[in-house]
Specification:
The chain has a single domain, classed as Rossmann fold, CATH 3.40.50.1820. Helix content is about 30%, strand content about 20%. It contains 6 helices and 9 strands. Strand 4 and strand 5 form a beta hairpin. The model has no long low-confidence stretch (mean pLDDT about 95).
Length: about 220
């Protein structure tokens, strides 16, 4: 089981958000946004911020850091680290199962991620036979795209997907994200697309849109 940082915005929450950080960060990276989302009207939930495993990252000279999968080169399509991508999917599925054991039904769990974490969000979320409440894909893309059509769970098409990207992102070019969006549309998914005048980051406008998405995905019981 991955180690996690957790923050509850109410006692005995009936909904959870599992939020995956980006390359080289850790579970504390997005902890500060919780209070901002709360001030914007986001629902009261349990936030789970897991730490990715430590591994050498090829594109960074083999330096060991927290990563959901290795980055073999700048070509994110032809050279994907399929083994680590699938291992991270299994690790995130364990976190989902733990939330269910805690009493949160899958239809009340949102899976979110930034950059690498966003890729694992799609990798995991599309393959759940019992749909989640929603997927938030922040500055990310669809990994193992050629496998998605055959491997996705048909039931997952009911899951709303929030995709947000910076128009001038130098890390994951927006063309990569729009291609992922178009692939998801072709597979029958409903994608809320948001584009912002920023680079590889979050913005205040984006946080407002995230709060609104969470409010819709996790309505009061």
């Amino acid at each position: 089981m991955l180690n996690c940082v957790e923050l509850q915005t109410r006692d005995r929450p009936d909904a959870s958000v599992i939020w995956l950080h980006g390359l080289g960060a850790d579970g504390y990276d997005f902890l500060p946004v919780v209070r901002e989302l709360e001030s914007m009207g986001a629902p009261a939930v349990r936030y789970v911020f897991p730490h990715a495993p430590m591994m050498p990252v090829t594109i960074n000279g083999g330096y060991v850091m927290r990563a959901w999968y290795d980055i073999l080169g700048t070509d994110l399509v032809r050279r994907e680290d399929e083994t680590s991508i699938r291992a991270s999917q299994v690790a995130v599925e364990q976190l989902i199962a733990r939330e269910v054991q805690r009493g949160v039904v899958r239809a009340r769990i949102v899976l979110a991620g930034f950059s690498q974490g966003a890729a694992i969000t799609l990798q995991t979320g599309l393959r759940q036979s019992e749909p989640l409440a929603g997927l938030m894909v922040l500055s990310g893309y669809l990994p193992l795209a050629d496998s998605s059509s055959a491997e996705r769970a048909p039931q997952s098409a009911r899951v709303p997907i929030f995709m947000a990207h910076g128009a001038s992102d130098p890390v994951i070019p927006i063309a990569r994200a729009t291609a992922s969006r178009d692939r998801l549309h072709a597979l029958g998914y409903t994608v809320q697309w948001h584009e912002y005048p920023m680079q590889h980051s979050l913005s205040a406008e984006e946080l407002g849109d995230i709060a609104a998405f969470l409010t819709t995905a996790l309505p009061p019981l």
